[in-house]
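Protocol step 4 of 5: obtain the predicted structure for the target chain.
Materials: sequence only (see below). No template structures provided, no constraints applied. The aim of this step is simply to have a reference model before the mutagenesis design in step 5. Sequence pasted as it appears in the construct record:
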Amino acid sequence: MTTKQQLKLKEIKKLIGDRFYKQDEKINDIRIELAGIKVDTAYIKWLFGGLLSFILILLSVIITVIFKLIG
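Step 4 output (structure tokens):
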């Protein structure tokens, strides 16, 4: 390997490393936002999305079982 090739290899490694570091920074920024105010909206979305649908499904199952027992 010549010195030019070694330099190119080092530059490529540096660019790849910088790119991954920037992606990690973005992920950390998102985590910080989630740890702050943004959690409130995410929690509300989860509450009304996942939990509400789960409760509705559970309620429909309970009603079905009650009607099966009665009828």
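Step 4 remarks: The chain has a mean pLDDT of 72. The helical segments are 3-35, 38-70.
Proceed to step 5.
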